[in-house]
Amino acid sequence: MLTEKYSLPLENKKMPKPKLKLGFYGITGCAGCLLSVIFNEDEILDLIQLVDLKAFPFIKEVNPDEQFDYVFMEGLVADKGDLEELEKLRQNTRYIVSLGACACTGCVPAYRQFTLKENYEHLLYRKQKEVEDIQPTPIDAHVKVDYYIPGCPPDKREIVTFIKNIAIGKEPKPYENPVCVECRKNGNQCLLDLGKPCLGPITAGGCNSVCINGNFECWGCRGPTKDMNLPLMIKILKEKGFDDKFIQDRMRTFAGLKLPMLEQFFNVKVNVKC
Amino acid sequence: MRVLKQKKKRLFEFLGKLKQSYELIAPVSKDVVRFEKIDDTGDIYLEKNSYFPLKEYFFRKEEVLFKFNGNKIIVPAPEAPARVFFGIRKCDLNAISHQDMVFMNQVNDPYYSSMRKNSFLLGYHCNTAPSPFCFCGSLELVDYSDLMFYDRGDYLLVEIGSEKGKFLAGKFREFFVETNAAITQKEKIIPRADRLDKKDISHLYDHPDWKKGVDICLSCSACTALCPTCYCFEIHDNVGTKNPKEGERKRSWSSCQVQEFTKVAGEHVFRKEREERFKHRIYHQLDYFKQKNGINLCVGCGRCIEACPTRIDFVEIINEMK
Questions:
Q1: What is the ipTM of this complex?
Q2: Fold of A2-167
């Protein structure tokens, strides 16, 4: 796979390999993740020289049958049009990259799944027949996803590093450590010790603990780590005086769909006093 | 060893004078106690030990190992200014001695030694254990300072521990007076800091009691980040955007508490289970390092327990093991 992707004309003077064809697309979402790409003002012009940028909302568009090497997909599937666009892109693309929390975990829009229908029913589109409601779900609930760049919004540096890595034929590596690893390195005091309901210990980092650096607890926007100790996290928050409803709501705000059967973990017995 | 005497009020005058020639770094009390560069010696806080250790000043959180451009390698030569560290407790002095052993004696790490060589270590003796988590008395700590300050109420005894210390005491001789006093080995023992039972844990690896700690471990890495002796790191490359042929290789702190630490090619993880990772840190501190170097890596500062979100006290766990 690596040699196949090796496309940057490093020493290859005879026959430069064609640049990777990239596309950026957004389905239901706030477009903030796409802005995170653009916010790399100092590097963006050099960055797009490394690849062949084929599509970016409001900048460049291509006909729907264009073939891509990589498509960065922002947003989540919330109506039938989203799904059709996503499936079409999946067919035409070698690697799909989930860009941002909506695409990766479902984020806030997917919270709808944890509330009663009567709470949101009056907000649904009724008059426009073309908007056909689908239960909001991250894109990996519908198509195969090859890479994830999580976060609400994703770290702008991480996007640059990702694109540079694929351009030079290096396998992009996700950051899998919990937020605490970077947070402690940054010299922060633990917000759990200050009584704040910080989800850092169960959340994947890579964000340089940006929220905690600003004294704001982690809400888990980058999704759970593979290695989380969920029953213990719940027990700690209970010990700090937060009730079950609060803990469930907080954990489901950004990554509810990636924490299936959350309730059952409330019953696991953990012996801890803190 | 030669001992000098100093009146208490002369201490801050001495530090103030020192500050004119050197960068002075000492503990200050902010949200927590940290070692920071001192602008006003009145900020120095000596009641408790620092929450964060000193190690970031020598073994930096992130370090550029080299820059590259095509086949050309450029190795940076970082140079730290002459720095005086004041208020270092005995545990942290020993932690520095252990890191010196790893980075300067066993190999010559140019990045560490360039940060370390222009520094003076001014210790401050604990008359009593400064935190309930301390257990330095259970470990065989040695003297490892340039100057060590012993608080004796209204005056201080200052023990000269090295040539560097002798140089400083000579340079600022007006702040010290000669004395016949000596500091006995008994006086160097810190009371109420020996709560870890001296026991060989090498045969206890499969003991069921470790689970008491593992069950309440989040694998958050607070213990390793705040440990003054933990020295593991990871290495990353980053290439330039304008010209991907150039870039830099960096090393940064890593932690044995996360799966990523032992992940190798093919996504294989050597220490996949939390229990293995949990025990690895404790065994490295209290067994493996000793087997290799004849001395425990752990210095008993207790930071890993104090900083742990669930206060996992491995000292208690070990003490209760039969």
A1: 0.92
A2: Rossmann fold (3.40.50)
